[in-house]
């Protein structure tokens, strides 16, 4: 019987997750270096195209979920991927002169996304190999408590700052999207809390 860790789908997922972790590491180090040395508007000007295409690569995750290669719920995956695509294509590219792009929230957005994805993709790649260390599992199912709120706050703030430059119709579209963030964040956040309990389990108190 063949080892499932060497099956073709798993090989593809290991490669995809490993490459994705490496690409998001570039986003992280670029953001940290440029933010500490040059600041805005240079952070956006020098990173937005690369960041956009790295985030666009996440569309692959929708197909992975659709084909049953991963256990992630399709609706949750689609919601998360498209909410980010709205930012990178609908704000950073479509509204290049939006004040949001040159605000500090662009930096916090990149940091929140990149740290989350480095941990997430590294965890997936190592888990598929059966070599995931406990500290990486803990990071995967704990750091979201901070990184998800900071990421969502940065996304929402970017949209709000972009409203004056969005025009009438696109501005109303963005306002509708803002409303969907409330149930979307609740759904994603509670899903991760449930996953954390499932993976790490509750702390057991020893009885004397």
Percent range for helical residues? over 70%
Going by helix content, strand content and strand pairing, the class is mainly alpha
Task: Please tell me how large the radius of gyration is.
Answer: 18 Å
- Note poorly predicted spans: 1-6, 204-208
Q: Estimate nothing, just give the exact number of structural domains.
A: 1
Order of helices and strands: HHHHHHHH
Count of beta strands: 0
Beta fraction of the residues?
A: under 5%
Number of helices: 8
Please tell me the overall pLDDT: 89
So what's the overall shape?
A: globular
User: How would a textbook summarize the main sheet?
Assistant: none
Our measurement of the CA-to-CA distance between the termini, rounded to an integer number of angstroms, reads 46 Å
Protein name: Very-long-chain (3R)-3-hydroxyacyl-CoA dehydratase
EC number: 4.2.1.134
Pfam family, one: PTPLA
GO molecular function, one term: very-long-chain (3R)-3-hydroxyacyl-CoA dehydratase activity
Keywords:
single chain, 208 residues, mainly alpha, 75% helix, globular
What topology does this entry show?
Blueprint: H1 8-37, H2 42-56, H3 59-66, H4 74-93, H5 104-129, H6 134-140, H7 144-162, H8 168-199
Helix pairs in contact: 1-2, 1-5, 2-4, 3-4, 5-6, 5-7, 7-8
Give me a quick take on this structure.
With about 210 residues, this protein is mainly alpha-helical. It has 8 helices and no strands.
What does this structure look like?
This is Very-long-chain (3R)-3-hydroxyacyl-CoA dehydratase. The chain has 208 residues and is mainly alpha-helical. It has one domain (11-200). It has 8 helices and no strands. Helix 1 (8-37) packs antiparallel against helix 2.
């Amino acid at each position: 019987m063949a080892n499932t860790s060497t099956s073709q789908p798993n090989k593809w997922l290991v490669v995809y997750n490993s490459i994705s972790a490496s690409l998001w590491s570039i986003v992280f180090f670029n953001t940290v270096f440029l933010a500490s040395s040059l600041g805005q508007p240079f952070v956006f000007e020098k990173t937005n195209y690369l960041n956009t295409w790295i985030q666009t690569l996440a569309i692959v995750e929708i197909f992975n979920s659709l084909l049953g290669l991963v256990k992630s719920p399709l609706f949750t995956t689609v919601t998360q991927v498209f909410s980010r695509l709205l930012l990178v294509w609908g704000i950073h590219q479509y509204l290049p002169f939006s004040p949001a792009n040159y605000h500090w929230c662009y930096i916090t957005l990149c940091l929140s996304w990149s740290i989350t994805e480095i941990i997430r993709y590294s965890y997936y790649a190592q888990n598929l190999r059966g070599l995931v260390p406990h500290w990486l599992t803990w990071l995967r199912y704990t750091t979201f408590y901070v990184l998800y709120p900071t990421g969502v706050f940065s996304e929402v703030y970017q949209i709000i700052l972009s409203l004056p430059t969005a025009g009438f119709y696109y501005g109303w579209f963005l306002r509708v999207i803002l409303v969907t963030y409330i149930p979307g964040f609740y759904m994603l956040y509670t899903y991760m809390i449930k996953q954390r309990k499932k993976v790490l389990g509750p702390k057991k108190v020893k009885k004397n």
